[in-house]
Write a structure and sequence with these properties.
This protein is an alpha/beta fold and 310 residues long. It contains nine helices and twelve strands. Helix 7 links the parallel strand 9 and strand 10. It starts with a strand and ends in a 15-residue tail after the last helix. 38% of the residues are buried. It binds glyoxylic acid. Glyoxylic acid (GLV) binds next to loops.
Length: 310
């Protein structure tokens, strides 16, 4: 079996080593993104860790393409029609993203945004603490990761809402879906956590109109994809004081350009796309398990629906 990994040489060695150890009989090759490899041999499986403009001209008909991320927007449009694209499902990411989401929610719950504002004004003023059951937290996206976050928030005692394509049954979570459910879901949220991927349906979903429905002083957390949030609208609502703060891990442009206005916005906490890092060992184990299943003619989970985009 031949496997090609699309990955720059500087990033490749842990992946090549892990795949070689897990599949000792496979022939592994590396594709340098955006380079042409003359006479590249055809591979049964392609691991598209990085986007490459030349990859699928060389590999037009693999049995399947895998990403090493939960998000697939970097390759979705390039994968040849009819070839299954398979994304990472959790593999250690959910647990990390739960911790990140809880930390950002606690920041809002403990009024750190307000105290940061007060600090800038050298103002000493105590506020009543708010009990978690009076703090309404909305999770957008209730797949493996979003559901884990919603469950953890329920365990912490928060009032939790969830929004997804269809209504989901999760204990303690008020579930919303669809156009009409969207406004009721947003109305009065104290904390909004986006876990949604970038798709045609989610792009610009969090615009001024949507964000204006949140409670005054609300906090926005984005750990899904940057395309979901209209950046200028967020800045305007923070400037006007309608929103209290934001914790952002994903951006339209990554790395976030040095002249981006987010850097100097005191109400925004920026992290460099670290809320759910891929764990190479667990990810390779998951991909290899799926390759073995496909080789036995079995179906696997995590296959992306090209229409939905996740
Ligand atoms: C990270 O953003 C991922 O998609 O895995």
């Amino acid at each position: 079996m031949r496997i090609v990994l699309s990955c720059p040489s500087s990033q490749a060695s842990p992946w090549m080593e892990l795949f070689a150890a897990a599949l000792p009989d496979a022939k592994l090759a590396r594709h340098e993104p955006d380079r042409s490899h003359n006479n590249a041999e055809r591979a049964e499986y392609v691991i598209a860790a990085y986007r490459s403009s030349t990859l699928f001209a060389e590999q037009p008909q693999p049995k399947a393409v895998f990403t090493v991320s939960a998000g697939v927007s970097h390759v979705l449009r390039d994968v040849p029609q009819g070839v299954p694209l398979i994304r990472v499902e959790d593999a250690g990411m959910a647990e990390q993203m739960v911790r990140y989401a809880i930390a950002a929610t606690m920041r809002a719950a403990l009024r750190f945004d307000e105290y940061a504002r007060q600090q800038r004004a050298r103002k000493w003023l105590q506020h009543e603490p708010r009990a978690p059951q009076h703090i309404v937290v909305g999770v957008m996206g209730l797949g493996v990761i979003g559901s884990a976050i919603a469950r953890a928030l329920v365990d912490e005692g928060f009032a939790v809402r969830g929004f997804a394509n269809s209504t989901k049954t999760l204990p303690g979570v008020a579930s919303f879906a669809g156009g009409a459910g969207w406004s009721s879901y947003l109305d009065g949220l104290d904390v909004l956590i986006n876990v949604l991927p970038a798709t045609a349906a989610t792009r610009n979903l969090l615009d001024r109109q949507a964000l204006s429905r949140l409670r005054d002083g609300a906090h926005v957390v984005n750990i899904g994809r940057g395309d979901v949030l209209v950046e200028g609208d967020l800045i305007a609502l923070l400037d006007s004081g309608k929103l209290g703060g934001a914790t952002l891990d994903v951006f339209r442009d990554e790395p976030l350009p040095p002249d981006h206005p987010f850097w100097s916005q005191p109400e925004i906490t920026i992290t460099p796309h670290v809320s759910g890092l891929t764990i190479p060992g667990e990810t390779v184990a998951q991909i290899v398990t799926k390759i073995r299943a496909l080789e036995r003619g079995e179906s696997v989970s995590g296959v992306v629906d090209p229409e939905r985009g996740y």
